Amino acid sequence: MSRIKSWVSRAALGVGALVVLLAVLAGVDGWKAFGQRASGERRARMERSPQWKDGRFVNPQPIINDNWGSVTSLFERGFEGTPTSPVTTAAVDPRRFDTPPATGLRVTWLGHSSNLVEIDGHRVLTDPFWGERTSPLTWLGPKRWYAPLIALDALPRVDAVVISHDHYDHLDYATLVAMKDWDTRFVVPLGVGAHLAYWGIPEERIVELDWWESTKVRDLEIVCTPARHASGRYLLDNNMTLWGGFALRGPSHRAFFSGDTGLFPAFRDIGERLGPFDVTLLEVGQYGRPWPDWHMGPEQAILAHQMLRGRVLLPVHWGLVNLAMHTWTEPIERALVAARSAQVTIAQPRPGESLEPEARPEPSRWWPDLPRQTAEQNPIVSSQME
Question: Locations of Polar residues compositional bias (predicted)?
Answer without folding.
Answer: 374-386
